[in-house]
Amino acid sequence: MNSKTLFAFVLVNICIITVTAQVYNYGVTVRTASKKFDSHDGKLKLSITSPNSDNSKKNTAQEFVLTPNDIKIKREKIYTATISSIAPLQNITSVYLRWTLASPYNPYYAINKPKIYFDSVTLSTATLNPYTHLASSESRKFCPTTIPIGIKHADGATFNSCF
């Protein structure tokens, strides 16, 4: 097989894979609680769980860093980010939220990990129907088992779909 034929074969396969993989864009909203806690510089991280598309009983988890740069995480604030996922919104069963300190090497934090309280996580998406040119939006709210939930540095909590 010469190099031109091999190149054409690889290019066709890449096009087929690209066409069949659907990607969904979501706006993510994370709400911190009104319960008193100290503000900290850090990053918010999210993992979404959805069932595999091959009808197996296994789940797929995708991880995202919502704030690539360190931010000041304060009480009663809303933090937003945009992510891209292979999972449609109706298939997302839960999200796992965690946060990490910007500088976790303070000796005080080795003994007493700081805690931040969170209320909910919301995923939202907008779609445009190419045939009717109508736009629609969907959103899904995820809540912890207890509201608010305190999450310590480098730990996390699962948020399940709620109303």
Quantity of strands, as a count: 10
Q: Report the principal-axis shape.
A: globular
Q: What is the CATH top level name?
A: Mainly Beta
The number of distinct helices, counting runs of at least 4 residues, comes to 2
In whole angstroms, the N-to-C terminal distance is: 58 Å
Outline the biggest β-sheet: 10 strands, antiparallel
Structural class: mainly beta
SSE arrangement, N to C: HEEEEEEHEEEE
What name is given to the CATH topology?
Lipoxygenase-1
Question: If you compute it from the alpha carbons, what radius of gyration comes out, rounded to the nearest whole angstrom?
Answer: 20 Å
Mean pLDDT, to the nearest integer, reads: 83
The CATH superfamily name is PLAT/LH2 domain
Counting copies of identical and different chains, the oligomeric state is single chain
How much of the sequence lies in strands comes to over 45%
Q: Poorly predicted ranges (pLDDT <50, ≥5 residues)?
A: none
